[in-house]
Amino acid sequence: MGGTSQFVVASFNLHAGVDGWGRPFDWLEACRALEADVLALQESWRPDDGPGLAETIASTLGYERHEHSLASGRVARPDPRADRRWMPSLDWRSVNHSLYLDSERPLSRRVTRSERFRLAQPGSWDIAVLTRLPVVRTEVIELGRLWRDRARRAALVVWVEVGGRQVPVVATHMPHLTYGSPLHYRRLAGALDRVVGAGPAVVAADMNLWGPPVRLLLPGWRRAVVGKTWPSWRPHSQVDHIVVRGLSMGGGEVRPDAGSDHRPILARLGLP
After folding, report:
1. I need a surface site. Which of 45, 74, 166, 261 has the fewest CB within 10 A?
2. Which residues of 94-114 are buried (b: 16+ CB within 10 A; e: fewer)?
3. Residue 182 pLDDT greater than 50, yes or no
4. CA distance 159 to 28
5. What is the rounded distance in angstroms from the CA atom of residue 88 to the CA atom of residue 31?
6. What domain range is 169 assigned to?
């Protein structure tokens, strides 16, 4: 879409830049291919000893970066036993994960004593907003932690300038339904009414929830993208969403598998 009142928003859960075995994928090229004006990232990894994914993407592709940590932990090195599958058989009792989060809830001693955990890279598990549009201001909405969750949840709000007007773009990563996420949805809906107001706005996120209940829990917001996003290799559900209020929608799409367990999404939006 052309003109100064149109812009492209994308969202991508990076899974710390690795698959379920710890093998890196080309997350930089995946983000480049989106050609977004504003890019919301979930599970963006920031190691303790060097630049993180969001920082590298921003500096390479010409974005301004805003980032907020939800948890800390470790990312494992590639597992030499890896096969063609994206991940080993899912078993949370196993030590063979690629991503360990332990800042909010301790892991078992069996996990922390394992060689795979001890050799893993420490760092921070973040959400981020990258933008090529001018930034007016930012704010973080703290949502707290549900007792079963391994992360503190929050929403990062970045007001960007579009066509001479301020449009808030909200990035978040919601907890799972089995953890009691409707409580956080209520907190988010109330906070958005207070912080963002009733004007044009965008929420781009891994919602960990299907489209119809998202609409019920965030009344007044419309889905800009409809399509299956998870798991990326054979998607059967949409848990990644871009929802808007007060904006025109010029098309939304789910992009092909890019290496994460989630597929990237994007929406072409405009001010009325």
Report:
1. 166
2. ebbbbbbbbebeebeeebeeb
3. yes
4. 24
5. 26
6. 6-270
C-alpha separations of 188 from 85, 157, 193 in Å: 36, 12, 9
Q: What is the CATH number of the domain that holds 137?
A: 3.60.10.10
Entry pTM:
0.96
Q: How many domains does the chain have?
A: 1
Torsion of CA 39, 160, 227, 214, to 10 degrees: 120
Domain assignment present for residue 11? The answer is: yes
By CB atoms closer than 10 A (0-12, 13-18, 19+), residue 33 is middle
Determine, yes or no, domain membership for 1: no
**Is 168 within a domain?**
yes
> pLDDT (tens digit, 9 = 90+) per residue, 27-77?
999 999 999 999 999 999 999 999 999 999 999 999 999 999 999 999 999
